[in-house]
Amino acid sequence: MSQGTILPEKVLIEPVLSEKTNIMREEGKYVFRVDPAATKIQIKEAVRVLFKVHPISCRVMVVGGKPKRQRYRSGYTSSWKKAIVRLPKDEKISLFEGI
Predict the structure, then answer these.
(1) Residue 93 covered by a domain
(2) Parent domain of 32
(3) Among the four residues 25, 38, 63, 81, which has the most C-beta atoms within 10 Å?
(4) What radius of gyration do the chain's Cα atoms show?
(5) Whole-angstrom Cα distance, residue 1 to residue 55?
(6) Which residues lie across from 54 on neighbouring strands?
(7) CATH code where residue 57 lies
(8) Residue range 33-77, pLDDT digits in tens
(9) How confident is the model at residue 91 (pLDDT cuts 50, 70, 90)?
(10) Is residue 49 included in any domain, yes or no?
């Protein structure tokens, strides 16, 4: 394994579950929190291998940390990377659908 390769299990950290992502899922778009070093190609391959589907596209963005304040300290939450993966209309990820 070369130095730039990340295992598919390590690329996808967790699914992002919210009202907005539930609406997106009806359109065939699935949102994941991903490894900061992962590329679009690695993310699509990980989804293909782990969920046995054929991704059409992948959009990646870095979500900046939000300001937070605890008592007398202030700071920011950590930034993280998310990916929106689009699937064909006839395919779904059964893990999300509860099938």
Answers:
(1) no
(2) 8-88
(3) 38
(4) 15
(5) 24
(6) none
(7) 3.30.70.330
(8) 999 999 999 999 999 999 999 999 999 999 999 999 888 888 999
(9) very high
(10) yes
Please state, in angstroms and rounded to a whole number, the distance separating the CA atoms of residues 76 and 79.
9
List, in order, residues 6 or more apart from 12 with CB less than 8 Å away: 32, 33, 34, 35, 43, 46, 47, 50
- What residues form DSSP beta bridges with 61? 82
In a domain, 41, yes or no: yes
Structure tokens at 93: 């990820």
Exposure of 5 in the CB half-sphere (CA atoms within 13 A): 5
Phi, psi of 24 (to 5 degrees): -65, -35
Q: Are 56 and 24 in contact (CB under 8 A)?
A: no
Q: With contact defined as beta carbons under 8 Å apart, do 60 and 40 qualify?
A: yes
What pTM does this model have?
Answer: 0.86
Q: What is the mean pLDDT of residues 18-36?
A: 95
Question: Which residues, listed in sequence order, are joined to residue 68 by a DSSP beta bridge?
Answer: 75
Locus of tokens 């059409």: 56
Domain count, the chain: 1
